[in-house]
C-alpha cells in the first residue's frame, strides 16, 4: 500500500482510497469509475462511502418505522 499526500490538505492517504478521511477530497486515481465517485460528482461534492451508507441506512430505518406506525394506526380502528 502506497501512501500519497492528499492534494487538498497534505494528509497522507492510501493511493487506493476513495476519499481523504481528513477532508473528503477524492483520493488516488481521478479517473475512477463506479457508484461512489459517480454519486459524488452528481451531488456536486465529495461524498464518502460512510456518508452514503449512513444516508441509505437512515432512509431504510425511517421508512421501516413509518410503515410500522401506519400499520399500528390502521389496525387500531
Helicity level, as a percent range?
Answer: 40-55%
Q: Report the principal-axis shape.
A: rod-shaped
What topology, given as strand order, has the largest sheet?
1-2
Number of helices: 2
Please tell me the overall pLDDT: 78
SS elements, strand count: 2
Separation, N- and C-terminal Cα atoms: 61 Å
Round the Cα radius of gyration to an integer and report it. 19 Å
Quaternary status of these chains?
A: single chain
What structural class do helix, strand and pairing data support? mainly alpha
Low-confidence runs: none
DSSP strand content: 5-15%
Biggest sheet record: 2 strands, antiparallel
Describe the structure.
The chain is mainly α. The chain is 47% helix and 8% strand. The protein has two helices and two strands. The chain has helices at 35-43, 49-75, and strands spanning 3-5, 12-14. A two-stranded antiparallel ribbon has the order 1-2. A hairpin with a 6-residue loop joins strand 1 (3-5) and strand 2 (12-14). The radius of gyration is 19 Å and the shape is rod-shaped. It starts with a strand and ends with a helix. The model has no long low-confidence stretch (mean pLDDT 78).
Amino acid at each position: 500500500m502506497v501512501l500519497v499526500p492528499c492534494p487538498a490538505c497534505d494528509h497522507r492517504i492510501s493511493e487506493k482510497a476513495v476519499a481523504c478521511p481528513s477532508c473528503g477530497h477524492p483520493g488516488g486515481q481521478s479517473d475512477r469509475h463506479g457508484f461512489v465517485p459517480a454519486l459524488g460528482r452528481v451531488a456536486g461534492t465529495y461524498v464518502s462511502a460512510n456518508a452514503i451508507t449512513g444516508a441509505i441506512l437512515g432512509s431504510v430505518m425511517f421508512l421501516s418505522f413509518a410503515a410500522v406506525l401506519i400499520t399500528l394506526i390502521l389496525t387500531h380502528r
